[in-house]
Design goal:
By secondary structure, the protein is mostly helical. It contains 20 helices and no strands. It is globular. It starts with a helix and ends with a helix.
């Protein structure tokens, strides 16, 4: 997908060794991070630690800010909580240094880095309390000057978009989209000279399109889906898969999901098929070794698109392919049971199996799924791995629901599903996993009402 060796040599040759090798391969250039695979990125993070900890080094706050960005990127790709904590610690050190030196514009960038780490923690682990902390930090940064202030304003619009997505207000969604306009214009202007600002603008456009897509799906709005499509196409115009492979893959994946949603809203299988095709191409373009979580996210998006295609076409084979996509994503996520994405993927897999059974009338599919989940539960302990155990319980409840619906008889399945969901809810709540708690609670209310 990109000629890594040639590009890295070209980009690094301009530095001519002016900095120590311990400064890493990128020499502090964040725009190069996407070219590093996970192994090289881990080495880069260690080198950034050394650079930030070097005694009497020049501009220590900037070195700390660079280290924060590298560790956050490592956490985003791997889901490593330790890497995320290191990113937050370096961002705090950078902020303190900039404030001591009276560098307000740089302090705004450090605050944005702090907020980005907090928001990533909320996305990875479902801890919504981090969003409140990020909002406070961003408001302070938005009151300052420079690129950091513009980025803070865009990130604040993204946080407001999360709230609007939960409320389902179409007018508020349009207002949030408009709030991105001014900071994005400032980032675009800065991006003519700064590669980091250009990438930040593209990333915020992806966030904007993602919010519009979520609102379009919730409100069944063609208008919002069209706006999301225009926004993601604009983001893709400013990205080169040879130089920004991961950001391009995220934008391309969202583009496929938007097309799938458009087809679902219009009742037209053509856009759905186009979306599936784009997602399948994106899966091939992203390497699991390069970014495990990005690869898993695209697999999950493809699985969900295949489910939509299965419903639209009445083809049960699409659900089989969707289950395969979710299985591949789970192969990456199995090592990180606390990740919110794992629960989502597992739930979608159970849903795909249930829909396949409902469509074919094949109870054997549910039998196999239930046997697999019971086997997984027997291998897990609530004391050793409580979150993974609770995720299995939510999936088992979905199978119980499907069995009662498919057979038309309730031989205690719904009561068993309610018990499993109540147990899972207790575990999620105890561990402070709010998004997973909400998911379990919604499912529990649905079962009880049935």
């Amino acid at each position: 997908m990109f000629e890594f060796g040639r590009d890295l040599r070209r980009r690094l040759s301009s530095d001519n060794g002016l900095k120590s090798r311990s400064d890493g391969l990128t020499r502090g250039d964040r725009a190069l991070l996407e070219l590093l695979d996970l192994y090289l990125l881990q080495n880069e993070a260690r080198a950034a630690d050394i650079s930030a900890g070097r005694i009497c080094a020049k501009d220590m706050p900037s070195r700390c800010l660079t280290a924060a960005g590298v560790w956050r990127e490592l956490a985003r790709r791997s889901g490593d909580a330790v890497a995320l904590r290191k990113a937050a610690a370096h961002a705090q050190a950078a902020l303190e240094g900039f404030e001591r030196e009276g560098r307000k514009a740089d302090a705004a960038c450090a605050r944005c880095e702090q907020a980005a780490a907090a928001m990533l923690g909320a996305d990875l682990f479902g801890d919504e309390d981090l969003i409140a902390a990020a909002a406070i930090t961003l408001k302070s940064a938005a009151a300052l000057t420079g690129v950091g202030a513009a980025l803070a304003q865009a990130m604040l619009a993204g946080l407001e978009g999360r709230r609007v997505l939960a409320s389902g207000d179409a007018d508020a969604a349009i207002a949030v989209s408009a709030a991105f306009a001014t900071p994005l214009a400032a980032l675009d202007a800065a991006g003519r000279k700064s590669p980091a600002a250009r990438l930040a603008a593209a990333e915020q456009r992806i966030v904007r399109a993602d919010i519009l897509t979520g609102c379009a799906a919730k409100l069944q709005s063609h208008n919002l889906a069209d706006q999301a499509q225009r926004e993601i196409r604009l983001a893709l115009q400013n990205l080169d898969p040879s130089y920004e492979p991961l950001l391009w893959a995220r934008a391309r994946s969202l583009n496929g999901s938007i097309l799938t949603l458009t087809g679902e809203l219009e009742g037209d299988i053509g856009p759905i098929a186009d979306g599936v095709k784009i997602l399948a191409h994106t899966v091939e373009a992203v390497s699991r070794d390069h970014s495990p979580l990005d690869w898993a996210r695209v697999q999950a998006a493809l699985g969900l698109a295949l489910q939509i295609m299965g419903d639209a076409s009445g083809n049960s084979r699409a659900f089989d392919q969707a289950v395969s996509c979710f299985d591949r994503a789970n192969a990456v996520l199995a090592a990180q049971p606390a990740l919110a994405l794992r629960a989502v993927v597992s739930s979608q897999r159970a849903g795909a199996l249930a829909r396949c059974a409902e469509m074919t009338g094949d109870i054997a599919v549910l039998d196999a799924a239930e046997a697999a989940l019971r086997s997984e539960l027997s291998d897990r302990s609530t004391a050793i791995d409580p979150v993974a155990w609770a995720i299995c319980q939510t999936n088992l409840a979905r199978i119980y629901e499907a069995r009662a619906k498919l057979t038309g008889r309730d031989n205690g399945q719904r009561a068993a599903a309610a018990l499993a969901l109540a147990s899972a809810f207790d575990v999620f709540a105890e561990h402070g996993l709010r998004s997973l708690s909400d998911m379990a609670l919604c499912a529990l209310e649905r079962v009880r009402s049935a």
